[in-house]
Amino acid sequence: MKLSRSICAAAVATSIALASSTHTLADTFLNFGQMGTPDSFAFESFPVFTRYSGTTSFYTNNIFAYFTKTGLTGTERDQFEFWVGFAGGYSKADPSLPGSSWGVSNPSLGAEYYYNIVQPTVCYTCDGYIKDTISPFATITFPTGSKDETGFQANSNNFTYFGTLTNFLKINGWSSTIAPLSIIYSGQSYNNVQTAGGLFERFRGGLSLQVADFVTGFDLTPEFAIGVHHQIRLNNIAKSSYKASTQAFIGPAISYTGLAATGAYFFANLNFDYYHSSNLKSSPYIGLIYVQYLDKLFESKTP
Q1: Which of 109, 184, 192, 243 suits 43 as a labelling partner, its CA being 20 to 30 A distant?
Q2: What element of type H or E holds 58?
Q3: Any idea what the CATH number is for the domain that residue 37 is in?
C-alpha cells in the first residue's frame, strides 16, 4: 500500500504546502509502504490538517488505485500499483482577491513498483519474521485551469512532478520505512499575476526536496503500532520564484489494521516543526491515511 503561499500573502502558505500549492507532499507512515492485495482495487485518502499563522488549512489527496497480481518477475514477489487522483480541501481566501476557500484541484496520475528483497518465511506474528521491500514511485499533477489568486486553488494551474524511493523493513514487531530523498519539481504557472510593482509574472515553484523522511516503531499488538516520524523539507531551492526555506518535523506515528477483514487500514502522523527558517512560521500538521479495498467493502455489504 503506497500509500504529499513574499511576493504576495498567498505565497507564504503555498511554500508550506509545497512551493507552489501542488498538495503532493508525502510522509512515510508506520507499517505503510508494503505491497497491496494482488489484483485488487482500492480507494486511498491522504488528509492533512496544517496550522499556520493562526489559520488552519485542510486538504486531502484522494486516489483510486489498482494493484497488479504480479510484477516484473511474474511472481508475487513484486507488484505494480497504478492510480488516478485529485485533491480537495480548504485554505482561507483573502476576500480582496479572486478565489474560493474551498475547492478541488490537482488531478494526478501515478505508479509505484514494489519488490520484496527479503520474503517472509514465517507467519506475521511468529518469531523470525523478516520482510524488506523497496518501492520507487512517481506521480504527476496536472494544471487545474484555475485563475484564482487566493484560496485553495491558488497557484494550482501548473504541472508538478514527484518521485522517490522508499524502503520498508520489518523484523518481528519492529518496523521502519525510509525515503532518504524525494524530489519535487513544480513548473511555471499558466497564470499571469500582477506584482506590487505593477508587472505581470508567471510564478514557478521550482525544485524542492524532502530528505531524512523516515518512521520507525513497534507493534503493541498485531493490529496496533506506535512510533516516531521525521522529515526535513528544503523548499524552493532552485529555479523558483519564491525564496528558499527549510522545515524540519518530528512527531508520533500510529498504524491500525484491526479492520483488515473489511479491507480498511488507518495510519497517522502528528508532526511538530523543531526547526524552520526565518522566513517561515511554525506549522504543525496532522497527516492521515485511510485505505479501503473496494472488493472487501462490497463483500461486507453482500448478504
Answers
A1: 184
A2: strand 55-67
A3: 2.40.160
